Amino acid sequence: MNKLVITLALALAALPSFATTSIKATVNGMVCAFCAQGIEKRVSSMPATKAVYVDLKKKTVAIEAKEGYSLDAKAITAEITDAGYDVVKLETVQKSVEEIKAEIKGGK
Predict the structure, then answer these.
(1) Extents of the domains making up the chain
(2) pTM score
(3) What is the annotated signal peptide range for this record (predicted)?
């Protein structure tokens, strides 16, 4: 019985995680569509990035990781800062960019 439990636990641990990991950043200094486009282009070019959403009104940038990749918060902050904007808050969330976008557009 113990061997079965250990084997099952090891098998479950080997399964891929289906939770989507994203970083949600609050960014000051974005004032126009050109600002949003610049940030989106820079962050999209990073190797671990699957999707990016920028909302000027809410000052939010959401970045979703590709499957099997981890997002580097320091590198993302550096990209946004190098583009001339101020990252005031970063949080890791278990949501896709589409889910974050729906929340923002829904006013939640």
Answers:
(1) 18-106
(2) 0.80
(3) 1-19
**How do residues 20-46 score in pLDDT, each as one tens digit?**
899 999 999 999 999 999 999 999 999
The answer as to CATH 3.30.70.100 being correct for domain 18-106 is: yes
Q: Which residues of 3-26 are buried (b: 16+ CB within 10 A; e: fewer)?
A: eeeeeeeeeeeeeeeeebbbbbbe
Is residue 57 a contact partner of residue 106, using CB atoms and an 8 Å limit? Answer: no
Q: What is the torsional sign of CA 26, 107, 34, 72?
A: positive
Q: Are strands 22-28 and 60-65 parallel, antiparallel or unpaired?
A: antiparallel
